[in-house]
Design goal:
Helices cover 52% and strands 7% of the residues. By secondary structure, the chain is mostly helical.
Length: 183
Amino acid sequence: MTTAPVLRQAVSATHSVFTGALPTFTPTSDAELDTILSTFRSKVFVPSHLLKRHRDLVYRKRHRPLLNVEPITVMIGAEEVPLEPLDHLSSEPNMRREFSRMLSLMKEAKDWNSLPGFLAGCHTAKRKVDARLLEKMVRKANEAGRQRTVMECIRRSDTTGFILGDARIVREVKVGRAPVNTE
């Protein structure tokens, strides 16, 4: 019995993906904060922008040798992004722990400016940020005098997913504490 030849789709080096732009982050004042942002970008935000066939390449164990031998890149928006093998369970950062650590590392205005993009990435990736974490975010922003950043997140609620749907968050937004003066 003869078998028909198997036709395989040629895998090109670059694929085009049309699902919008990835959030980009400017360098912050803290290297650890930069690491957290880039980890979320590469391990959470990039996979969420991929087509199903590209996500399969990234997450399925049987495709890992292919990605290690033949680098494949995709175009997301105007950016060329290399695909790398990931594991759902061990690759993705813990949202609660890393978001809290990220908030504690934000000291300067340029650090806080990355927050709307981060929330937009979480919203696009369908990663829910717990209301308690959002309340903490607003409180920390108020203490740092960064109410404008919170208002920007609210203004861009369609992309950030940050809405005033919890009474604790509304209370923190309304309180709008002045920055702590330690002189």
